[in-house]
Amino acid sequence: MGKKIDNGQEEQPIPLLTPYKMGPFQLSHRVVLAPLTRQRSYGNVPQPHAALYYSQRTTEGGFLITEATGVSDTAQGYPDTPGIWTKEQVEAWKPIVDAVHAKGGIIFCQLWHVGRVSNYGAQPHGQAPISSTDKEITPHLPTSTTGYDIKFSPPRRLRKEEIPDIVNNFRLAALNAIEAGFDGVEIHGAHGYLIEQFLKDKANDRTDEYGGSIENRCRFALEIVEALSNAIGPHRVGIRLSPFTDFMDCADSNPKALGLYMAEALNKYGILYLHMVEPRIRVNENSKRHDDSLLPMRKAFKGTFLAAGGYLREDGNEAIAENRADLIVYGRWFLSNPDLPKRFELNAPLTKYDRATFYISDPVIGYTDYPFLETTTA
Ligand SMILES: Cc1cc2nc3c(=O)[nH]c(=O)nc-3n(C[C@H](O)[C@H](O)[C@H](O)COP(=O)(O)O)c2cc1C
């Protein structure tokens, strides 16, 4: 029901700003903060400035997903990304989670292992990064496409008997996240990192039961889903997938079948949500353009469906109104507009994001200094 406005007509509610019940969580609107790596967690330890950053983006009943957070000492690839495998890291997350909860927000921690998107320098004892494969990422990739200044070292293919240890790293990290006060976790199964290195056939060249068929390539991801569901409850577990992207040399010959297989397989575990990245996202000029849609996966998955990638106010509203997603996830525009839900409510102008400061280590600039509406319209 809409509010009455002056001329006596019903004002239509703004779809993005309608409430939604996601499992046990009562959300007051559908504008979600995307996981956004900011590289300001010095020495892999979350810092006090992150409490301000996340609380700025918190609304009562709003849903936030943290930046990708390493599950173990082999999970890192970029400098100053946070982890959640040590006691110190868990303690450091607590005030950040508390700051979000103090404003009535709901926050999940995105759990991450980069796999081969790493180098000797980022690994314990200078060892090789681990992966599904020993194939290297195309060397020219980092600076030309992402702006990330990292070098990739040749990975080491995980032996089959090592895989349960990695699943266990995710499980322990999820337990740590709950210990830190998070409401749940999102498994980072997207964008070319370790889980995708198993999921996609361009990267996964294994011949054991973790490679080959779709079922085999999805086994590692689903083992993590199962382990986390058992450890912290399926209502606290979400997963992010990007079958259509080709980030970090991870592409699949049949992304639609892969996405659909995962959407259907996830139903068995009854997890809270499936978060998918739109096919329209292109990471560089040579990436394939996909005219596919997420609709088959949206229809197949029985839990909450989150869609991300290139959304603004109008198409976000349309996606909700047409029931193509339950929640819309905003990255760059939420980064530069801490009060994004308010701006959508008022249809106010947005502050443009500054790419140059996405990944710098300054604790304020390009991080907590984006203006709120009151200060821009005064
Ligand atoms: C600065 C930056 C950091 C990002 N870090 C992550 C991350 O840690 N985990 C992740 O899954 N996606 C990450 N992404 C992708 C975003 O979550 C999002 O899917 C992407 O920006 C597209 O959405 P948008 O068009 O609303 O920005 C990042 C994107 C940007 C711009």
Automatic annotation (TrEMBL):
Main EC class the enzyme belongs to: oxidoreductase
Keyword Lyase (UniProt): no
UniProt cross-references to Pfam families, sorted A to Z: Oxidored_FMN
UniProt KW Flavoprotein keyword: yes
Region feature (Disordered): 125-148
Required co-factors: FMN
Sorted UniProt keywords: Flavoprotein, FMN, NADP, Oxidoreductase
Domain NADH:flavin oxidoreductase/NADH oxidase N-terminal: 16-347
One MF annotation (Gene Ontology) recorded for this entry: FMN binding
InterPro entries: Aldolase_TIM (IPR013785), OxRdtase_FMN_N (IPR001155), Oye-like (IPR045247)
Catalytic activity: (1S,2S)-OPC-8 + NADP(+) = (9S,13S,15Z)-12-oxophyto-10,15-dienoate + NADPH + H(+)
Protein name: 12-oxophytodienoate reductase
Gene designation per UniProt: LOC113713557
